[in-house]
Design brief:
Blueprint: H1 5-19, E1 39-42, E2 48-51, E3 60-67, E4 75-80, E5 84-87, E6 95-104, E7 107-111, E8 115-118, E9 126-129, E10 137-139, E11 144-147, E12 150-153, E13 158-161, E14 166-169, E15 177-180, E16 185-189, E17 196-200, E18 214-218, E19 256-264, E20 268-271, E21 274-276, E22 279-282, E23 289-296, E24 303-306, E25 312-318, E26 325-328, E27 334-341, E28 361-365, E29 390-397, E30 411-415, E31 421-429, E32 434-438, H2 441-448, E33 452-460, H3 476-483, E34 488-489, E35 498-500, E36 514-517, H4 536-542
Parallel strand pairs: 9-11, 10-13, 11-14, 12-15, 13-16, 14-17, 15-18, 16-19, 17-19, 18-22, 19-23, 22-24, 23-25, 24-26, 25-27, 26-28, 27-29, 28-30, 29-31, 30-32, 31-33, 33-34
Antiparallel strand pairs: 1-2, 2-5, 3-4, 3-6, 6-7, 6-8, 20-21, 35-36
C-alpha cells in the first residue's frame, strides 16, 4: 500500500529524532562523544577514583553512579573538568557501577558503558606524628593519628581535626601528648554523632590510666604567678622541654575549639609529683570554646585550669584518678553543666613514677600555692588576681564506701588557699569524708568581701556535710553561713536522684547512665533561679554565660539529654 508523501516525511522526521536519543534523557550533539576507557578503582573501603580518556570537544564530564551488580537507578554524583573523579562516603564491601558523559556548553553526549567496582573492607590507616606542627594542618577522619612524643602545635599554626577522627598516644613513648602552645590554635569541632576521640592505642580490655600524656592548651591569659611558670610534667629532657605559661596579658585570648571531644586513659607522671593532666588549660582565654567534653579514666586531674578565663559547659569527668575539676592561680572563667562520677580507684599502667592520688576530690579550688605566687612565699593565698570562678549546675558523685579509702581527700568541694567564686545549683553526693571543706583565712576574706558564695546545693550520702577537725581551718560561723544559703542536707539516696545510675559499673555502658533527674527527685527543684540577691561582684562574674535555673544539678529535667550519643563509659 502506498502512503501519502506527507506521512512518509513525518515518519522520516520521527525516525531521525529517535536516532538522536539514548537512555540519558539528556540533549546531545552528533559530534560530541562520551569519554572512552572508563575505569573505576577502589581507594579505600569508602572511596573510589573514576578515570577515563578525554573526548574531543568536551569541556567537562558528568559522572553517574548506581549501586549493585545490576539494576538500580543511576544518579549524578558530580561533574569535573579533569579526566578523573573521586567519589567518597561509600559503603565498604559493596558493588557500584559508574558511567560518564561528556559536556560542552549546553550540549551533552550520551553516557559511556558501565564500569564496575567492589569496595574492600574498611581499613583505617595510621599516620604517626613525630614532629612538631609548625604550619596549618588537618587531621582527617579516615585516618588514625598517633602522637609519638611530646608534640607541639607552634605559635601561629592551627591544627584542625575533623569530626569522627581518632587520635592515640604512642604507648611505647611514655607521656606522648599534644601541646597547643601560646599563639597556636586547635579546631577540634566534633558532633554528637561523630565525636573526636583522644585515647590509648592499646586494644579494648588492656587500656589503663596513664597510657599517654593528654592535651595541654597554653594561652595568653592572666595568672597570679610570676615568671617563669612552667607546665607541670614538662622539662624532663630534650624531648620534653619546659613550657612557660607566665606573663599572659589577655583573658580574651582564643586558643580554638574543643567541642564534642573525649579524652580517655590519659594523664602521665613524667617524674614523681610531675604529672600531665588529661586536659590542662594554662592561662587559656575566654575566646576559646570548651563544651561537650568528656574525660574518662585519666591518671591525674581530669580538667585543670591554671589562671585564664576560658568558659566551659557540658563537661563530664568519669572515674578520675585524682581531682575531677581543679581551678587555681587566678582562674576567673565560668562552668555550667558539669558532671563528675567516681565508683572505683583507677589502676594505672605499670612502672610509672606515680599512681592514683591519695587525696582525690570532686572539685578542688585554690588561690595560689606555688613558690612564685605574686604575693610572695609568706602569704601566697593573697596573690591576685584572685581565683573567682563561677561553677553552676554541677553534679559531683564520689566513690561508695569501701571503693577507694584515702587518708585525705574524698571530699566533694575543697575550697581553700584564698579561693573565691560562686558555687550554685549543684549536687554533692556520696563523699566518704565530707561534702564540703573550707580552709584558710584568705578564703574567709573572699567571702567577707563578697567574692565567695555557695548557694542552693543538695547534699546527700556524704559522711558529713562540712569537714571538721585539726588542720581544716574551718570556721563554725562559715558553716552556719553556708547552711543558711539554701544548702539542703537530703535523705534521698544518690542513685534515686537520677533516672538511672548503675550500682555496678564494671560492665556499664552509656545506656546505663541517665543523668536526668528522676520523677519526684528533689533536685528537680530548689535551684536559685534569680541571681539578683547575690553580691554584685559575683552577679557580674556570672553575667553573659551562666543562666540561673530553678533546678539543681547538671541536667534540666525539662531539657535535652545533652550527653547522649557522644559520651562513653568503660573501665578498660
Amino acid at each position: 500500500m502506498k502512503r501519502p508523501l506527507h506521512i512518509l516525511a513525518g515518519i522520516a522526521l520521527l525516525t531521525g529524532l529517535l536516532a538522536g536519543c539514548d537512555d540519558s534523557d539528556s540533549p546531545s550533539g552528533p559530534d560530541l562523544q562520551p569519554p572512552g576507557g572508563v575505569a573505576v578503582s577502589a581507594l579505600s573501603g569508602t572511596s573510589v577514583r573514576v578515570t577515563f580518556s578525554p573526548a574531543s570537544g568536551a569541556s567537562a564530564y558528568i559522572v553517574q553512579r548506581a549501586e549493585g551488580e545490576t539494576g538500580g537507578s543511576f544518579t549524578t554524583v558530580g561533574e569535573t573538568d579533569e579526566n578523573s573523579f573521586e567519589d567518597t562516603g561509600l559503603t565498604p564491601l559493596s558493588v557500584y557501577r559508574y558511567r560518564v558523559a561528556s559536556r560542552s556548553g549546553s550540549t551533552q553526549s550520551g553516557f559511556s558503558g558501565e564500569a564496575r567496582v567492589e569496595l574492600p573492607e574498611l581499613v583505617t590507616p595510621t599516620r604517626t606524628i613525630t614532629a612538631d606542627i609548625t604550619s596549618d594542618r588537618t587531621f582527617v577522619a579516615d585516618s588514625i593519628y598517633k602522637l609519638s612524643g611530646f608534640i607541639k602545635v607552634a605559635n601561629g599554626a592551627t591544627l584542625t581535626i575533623e569530626p569522627g577522627t581518632k587520635i592515640v598516644g604512642d604507648f611505647n613513648i611514655p607521656g606522648s601528648s599534644l601541646f597547643i602552645l601560646r599563639g597556636a590554635r586547635i579546631i577540634a569541632d566534633g558532633t554528637s554523632e561523630a565525636p573526636i576521640v583522644f585515647t590509648s592505642e592499646r586494644p579494648l580490655g588492656q587500656r589503663q590510666p596513664g597510657d599517654w600524656g593528654g592535651v595541654i592548651m597554653v594561652g595568653n591569659g592572666i595568672t597570679n604567678r610570676g615568671s617563669p611558670t612552667y607546665i607541670e610534667g614538662t622539662g624532663t629532657g630534650s624531648a620534653n622541654p619546659l613550657v612557660d605559661y607566665s606573663q599572659g596579658t589577655d583573658n580574651d585570648d582564643d586558643s580554638g575549639i574543643l567541642r564534642y571531644v573525649r579524652i580517655e586513659f590519659a594523664g602521665f607522671p613524667t617524674a614523681p609529683n610531675e604529672e600531665l593532666n588529661s586536659l590542662t588549660m594554662a592561662a587559656v582565654g575566654r575566646g576559646t570554646t570548651i563544651e561537650y567534653v568528656q574525660i574518662l579514666l585519666g591518671l591525674d586531674d581530669s580538667f585543670e585550669w591554671f589562671g585564664g578565663a576560658v568558659d566551659g559547659r557540658y563537661l563530664i569527668s568519669y572515674e578520675s584518678a585524682d581531682d575531677h575539676f581543679d581551678m587555681s592561680e587566678g582562674y576567673v572563667g565560668r562552668v555550667q553543666h558539669a558532671i563528675a562520677f567516681q565508683s572505683i580507684r583507677p589502676e594505672p599502667r605499670p612502672n610509672l613514677a606515680g599512681g592514683a592520688a591519695s587525696d582525690p576530690q570532686g572539685l578542688e579550688n585554690d588561690g595560689c600555692w606555688a613558690e612564685n605566687c605574686l604575693a610572695g612565699d609568706s602569704n601566697r593565698s593573697a596573690s591576685s588576681p584572685y581565683t573567682v570562678p563561677v561553677f553552676a549546675n554541677f553534679t559531683l558523685i564520689g566513690p561508695p564506701p569501701g571503693a577507694w579509702e584515702t587518708p585525705s581527700g574524698n571530699i566533694g568541694m575543697m575550697l581553700r588557699r584564698g579561693t573565691g567564686g560562686l558555687y550554685v545549683n549543684g549536687v554533692v553526693a556520696r563523699y566518704t569524708r565530707a561534702g564540703i571543706s573550707f580552709r584558710g583565712e584568705q578564703t574567709m576574706e573572699r567571702m567577707e568581701n563578697d567574692l565567695l558564695a555557695v548557694r542552693n546545693i543538695y547534699l546527700t550520702d556524704n559522711a558529713v556535710t562540712f569537714q571538721t577537725g585539726s588542720g581544716t581551718g574551718e570556721s563554725a560561723q562559715f558553716a552556719m553561713n553556708l547552711a543558711a544559703n539554701a544548702l539542703e542536707e537530703g535523705s534521698v539516696a544518690t542513685a534515686d536522684l537520677f533516672a538511672n545510675l548503675p550500682l555496678n559499673t564494671s560492665t556499664a555502658s552509656a545506656a546505663d547512665f541517665d543523668w536526668m533527674p528522676a520523677a519526684g527527685s528533689p533536685i528537680r527543684t530548689g535551684g536559685l533561679a534569680d541571681f539578683s540577691g547575690l553580691p554584685q561582684p559575683l552577679r557580674d562574674a556570672a553575667a553573659g554565660f551562666v543562666t540561673p535555673t530553678s533546678y539543681r544539678g547538671a541536667v534540666d529535667p525539662n531539657g535535652p539529654r545533652w550527653w547522649e550519643g557522644w559520651t562513653y563509659y568503660a573501665r578498660f
